[in-house]
């Protein structure tokens, strides 16, 4: 039940998400905010446009946005909703989830390289590099949660998190922090990448899609929004107790995602982008934090006994 | 009867030297087909019959019997060897056409003869337990592959790589000989694997295991024993690199696995040792691969990486046995074993596809390629498939074996104590890193070779290769997809092999629903992509499609071939991080201060193998310094040599007089 509601809410939220970020950023900087559905209108306009393909490209370039979009949509089906499993759930599904997203990313990268542009090469290369650096942090977190909950599926990880032991609350804040920034990196947002930058040399994701247009570009944008909400939902899973009633859970879920969007808006308004060369170190810092989570979990589960 | 046929085949292979160039391939292929039919029949029979082992008396050397013993482990390897050698032979037909003018009938004869004998010797190595027979066939395997490597012997580099390979194989051989002799001497048993059971039951296993590991590890290519690989693979013709990387190095893994079946005590240090040497092989292998520009050298380093993944599976499995965590043991071994099969598939596919590219462009340097997807679309798709599979991405076979290892590790994480958890942590973190780096590397290779604009004249004139060079790859591709979609078909037979290590434990049937779910997800995934494709087609029919040049920041004067991203620039990001392993040196001429009209400047960068530099080259060079000093005795004058002889006799005389000897 919650799964169906969750997926519907996820779809609605993903449409609102970029609007909320834009409104927050406008408010903070004292500008007049756009209508919340403005990003959606932009996308709808893209669907009516003529596609332009570069003569350098091959079918890879045409296939890439579809594969990327499909991988994100399928990944959405794996997300658990607060005590309920996702549409697909099996032991080790979080490994599959990560590898599925990697599959989509693989195609985005070669799609960008297909244009033969050095700008897009740069973006593709950074995307590959950053996601390789961020993977260990994700797996460390999942490993810690598995230890804590004694399950190795997404649904199990989160469902047992809240009532196995109160000590779990020691780990949750750091986990949420790490996950928050994994989200930012996966979606190429601040502080790793600034989507509003106007210099190709310092972009990551935006520069990869310079040559995509119309339908393809729309799919890439929607996939980006979905990804936001997917990670937002994972974060919400840390915070929402699965025992409560469906209505309260739904409200909490919507609330957390809106808060998440506002938070991103605020962070992006006040924080400057990292120096590009410093990004790798910064990303590895997340893995270091995740190792601390792992060790703490070992102590909580009294496998590591300090005296 | 069977054995008689086998012996006849061995003898009949000599006929290859006596037929004309035109028929050599047909003859070799014919012999191989019979060999494959015969040995595959034996192998499959192991699964179908109730006995876990079939024995045939093969030879008798001075009354000492040498038997062929086909158990599950042997038949698993025999089937893998048969499949890859078959595709290798089929691919060779098209690939060797280019050499028809340059090589004479005897050279071709020797090549096919060696290819056949490499096949035969690999099968024999897997099925002979007797020490003499094993070492003999092991040596045969090295010799046969040596002759295959030096096929293009007019090339000096090839000979050098071949000799390097031959020497390293014999170093490995020496370790194996010592290990067998030591085991047999200290437990008073015959030379061979059967004696090991007695040895390991009452000796500490680790030292002897280490000897075996070094001996077999040189063949398998674990870092730092890998230095022959990056030289031999580029030197050999592509079908040979394919089968060497696909199956021959796995015979090293076979040896390690075989030895492991006899060890039942004190497994923990062995497991930890295998795990750590494997994860460093995996990570370093792929990191060094990223720095390479020679496509076949790069693939050779990826073999090292994949040997690392196989080793991680085996190491985790052994640790599971030692710490009594059944799920870790079962899934570790199963994942490692399945990855042996998987790697033999996608690596041979990649080498054959690289062979197509080399044949068409005559260069292995990826910096000179580009845009080949338009010229050779079929090769490109096959290469892409191999790249996705080797990066361990779903829905292909590489993912399944890695998933099994992950599954075991995360399950084991819950059951293990602190010690187990820390080891598992090291295991899955390295697997994650290897996966990410592999994606990084293969996006680079595929993009630089096949996408963008051609970077040189060589790449501009490539054409798609003949179908005879493509269809063997199609077989491999089919298996890659099949294992990816219906892994349960392959996992259940694999269980019998896993049981050799774990006792009665095997992957439970209850894993099947999991893989069925994954298959449903795949179907949905593919369906969604097709649906989107159709939807876009409809949208584009309404709104037309335009074409234009790639967006170039409003500047279109530059040559697109030059302004593209290169392999070096792609690797540069990572270089900042891990140049210790990648070891990239740049050579450039800086501008001088007073240089108003700059002269032409050059820039070059290349990467050398740290391990080869420090473990092989530096010691050899130091030794050479002393040896060169000793060379003053070699004057080339007969009088001096007579004098040496006289002095020697005089020395012996003196020593005898003083009763020293």
UniProtKB/TrEMBL annotation, chain A:
Bilayer topology: Multi-pass membrane protein
Pfam (any one): NADHdh
One cellular component term from this protein's GO annotations in UniProt: plasma membrane
Main location class: membrane
MF (Gene Ontology): lyase activity
Transmembrane residue ranges: 59-82, 94-113, 137-160, 167-185, 218-239, 251-270, 282-306
PANTHER family reported in the protein's UniProt record: FORMATE HYDROGENLYASE SUBUNIT 4 (PTHR43359), FORMATE HYDROGENLYASE SUBUNIT 4-RELATED (PTHR43359:SF1)
The protein's name: Formate hydrogenlyase
Higher taxonomy: Bacteria, Pseudomonadati, Bacteroidota, Bacteroidia, Marinilabiliales
TrEMBL record, chain B:
Domain of life: Bacteria
Principal location: membrane
Entry keyword Cell membrane: yes
GO CC aspect terms: plasma membrane
Segments passing through the bilayer: 72-96, 108-125, 131-151, 163-185, 205-228, 240-261, 267-291, 298-317, 323-341, 381-410, 422-453, 474-494, 514-535, 641-660
Keyword Membrane: yes
UniProt-recorded name of the protein: NADH-quinone oxidoreductase subunit E
Source organism: Ancylomarina longa
């Amino acid at each position: 039940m919650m799964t169906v509601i969750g997926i519907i809410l996820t779809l609605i939220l993903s449409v609102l998400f970029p609007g909320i970020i834009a409104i927050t950023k406008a408010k903070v900087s004292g500008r007049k905010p756009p209508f919340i559905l403005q990003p959606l209108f932009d996308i709808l306009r893209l669907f009516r446009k003529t596609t332009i393909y570069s003569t350098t490209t091959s079918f890879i370039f045409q296939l890439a946005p579809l594969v990327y979009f499909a991988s994100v949509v399928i990944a959405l089906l794996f997300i658990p909703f607060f005590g309920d499993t996702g549409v697909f759930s099996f032991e080790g599904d979080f490994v599959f989830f990560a590898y599925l997203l990697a599959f989509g990313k693989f195609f985005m990268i070669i799609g960008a390289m297909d244009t033969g542009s050095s700008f897009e090469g740069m973006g593709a290369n950074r995307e590959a590099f950053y996601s390789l650096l961020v993977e260990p942090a994700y797996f460390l977190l999942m490993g810690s949660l598995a230890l804590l909950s004694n399950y190795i599926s997404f649904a199990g990880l989160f469902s047992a998190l809240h009532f196995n032991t109160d000590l779990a609350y020691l780990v949750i804040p750091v986990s949420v922090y790490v996950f928050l920034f994994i989200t930012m990196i996966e979606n190429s947002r601040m502080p790793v990448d600034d989507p509003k930058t106007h210099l190709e040399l310092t972009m990551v994701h935006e520069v990869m899609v310079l040559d995509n247009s119309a339908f393809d570009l729309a799919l890439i944008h929607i996939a980006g929004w979905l990804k936001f909400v997917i990670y937002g939902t994972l974060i919400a899973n840390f915070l929402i107790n699965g025992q409560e009633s469906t209505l309260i859970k739904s409200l909490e879920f919507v609330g957390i995602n809106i808060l998440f969007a506002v938070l991103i808006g605020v962070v992006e308004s006040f924080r400057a982008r990292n120096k590009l060369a410093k990004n790798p170190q910064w990303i590895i810092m997340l893995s270091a934090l995740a190792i601390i989570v792992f060790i703490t979990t070992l102590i909580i589960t009294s496998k590591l006994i300090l005296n | 009867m069977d054995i008689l046929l086998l012996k006849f085949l061995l003898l009949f292979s000599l006929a290859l030297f006596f037929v004309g160039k035109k028929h050599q391939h047909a003859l070799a292929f014919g012999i191989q087909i019979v060999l494959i039919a015969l040995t595959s029949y034996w192998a499959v029979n192991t699964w179908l019959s109730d006995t876990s082992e079939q024995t045939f008396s093969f030879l008798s050397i001075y009354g000492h019997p040498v038997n062929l013993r086909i158990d599950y482990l042997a038949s698993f390897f025999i089937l893998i060897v048969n499949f890859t050698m078959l595709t290798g032979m089929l691919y060779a037909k098209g690939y060797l056409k280019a050499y028809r003018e340059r090589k004479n009938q005897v050279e071709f004869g020797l090549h096919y003869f060696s290819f056949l004998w490499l096949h035969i010797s690999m099968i024999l190595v897997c099925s002979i337990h007797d020490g003499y027979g094993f070492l003999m066939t092991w040596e045969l395997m090295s010799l046969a592959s040596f002759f295959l490597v030096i096929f293009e012997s007019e090339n000096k580099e090839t000979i050098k790589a071949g000799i390097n390979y031959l020497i390293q194989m014999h170093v490995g051989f020496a370790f194996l000989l010592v290990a067998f002799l030591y085991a047999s001497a200290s437990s008073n048993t015959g030379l061979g694997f059967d004696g090991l059971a007695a040895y390991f039951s009452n000796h500490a296993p680790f030292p002897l295991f280490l000897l075996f590991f070094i001996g077999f590890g040189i063949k398998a290519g674990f870092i730092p024993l890998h230095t022959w690989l990056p030289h031999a693979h580029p030197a050999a013709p592509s079908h040979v690199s394919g089968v060497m990387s696909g199956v021959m190095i796995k015979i090293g893994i076979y040896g390690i696995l075989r030895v492991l079946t006899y060890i039942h005590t004190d497994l923990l240090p062995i497991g930890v040792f295998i795990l750590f040497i494997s994860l460093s092989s995996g990570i370093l292998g792929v990191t060094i691969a990223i720095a390479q520009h020679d496509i076949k050298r790069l693939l050779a380093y990826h073999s090292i990486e994949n040997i690392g993944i196989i080793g991680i599976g085996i190491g985790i499995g052994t640790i599971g046995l030692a710490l009594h965590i059944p799920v870790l043991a079962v899934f570790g071994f199963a994942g490692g074993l399945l990855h042996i099969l998987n790697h033999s598939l996608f690596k041979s596919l990649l080498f054959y596809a690289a062979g197509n590219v080399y044949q068409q462009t005559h260069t292995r340097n990826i910096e000179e390629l580009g845009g080949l997807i338009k010229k050779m679309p079929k090769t490109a798709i096959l290469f892409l498939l191999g790249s996705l599979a080797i990066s361990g991405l779903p829905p292909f076979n590489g993912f399944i074996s890695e998933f099994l290892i992950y599954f075991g590790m995360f399950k084991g994480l819950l059951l293990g104590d602190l010690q187990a958890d820390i080891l598992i942590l090291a295991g899955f973190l390295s697997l994650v890193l290897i996966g990410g780096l592999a994606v990084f590397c293969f996006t680079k290779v595929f993009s630089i070779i096949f996408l963008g604009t051609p970077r040189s004249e060589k790449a501009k004139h490539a054409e798609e290769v003949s179908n005879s060079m493509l269809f063997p790859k199609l077989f491999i591709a089919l298996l890659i997809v099949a294992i990816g979609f219906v892994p349960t078909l392959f996992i259940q037979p694999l269980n019998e092999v896993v049981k050799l290590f774990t006792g009665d434990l095997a992957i439970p049937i209850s894993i099947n629903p999991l893989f069925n779910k994954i298959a449903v997800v795949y179907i949905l995934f593919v369906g969604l992509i097709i649906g989107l494709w159709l939807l876009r087609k409809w949208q584009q029919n309404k709104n037309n499609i335009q074409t234009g040049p790639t967006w170039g920041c409003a500047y279109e004067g530059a040559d697109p071939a030059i302004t593209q991203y290169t392999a070096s620039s792609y690797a540069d990001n990572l270089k900042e991080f891990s140049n210790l392993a990648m070891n990239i040196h740049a050579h450039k001429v800086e501008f001088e201060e007073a240089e108003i009209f700059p002269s032409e400047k050059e820039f070059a960068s290349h990467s050398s193998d740290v391990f080869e530099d420090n473990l092989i080259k530096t010691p050899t060079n130091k030794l050479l310094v002393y040896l060169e000093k000793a060379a003053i005795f070699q004057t080339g004058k007969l009088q001096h040599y007579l004098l040496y002889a006289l002095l020697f006799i005089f020395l012996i005389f003196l020593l005898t007089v003083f009763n020293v000897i």
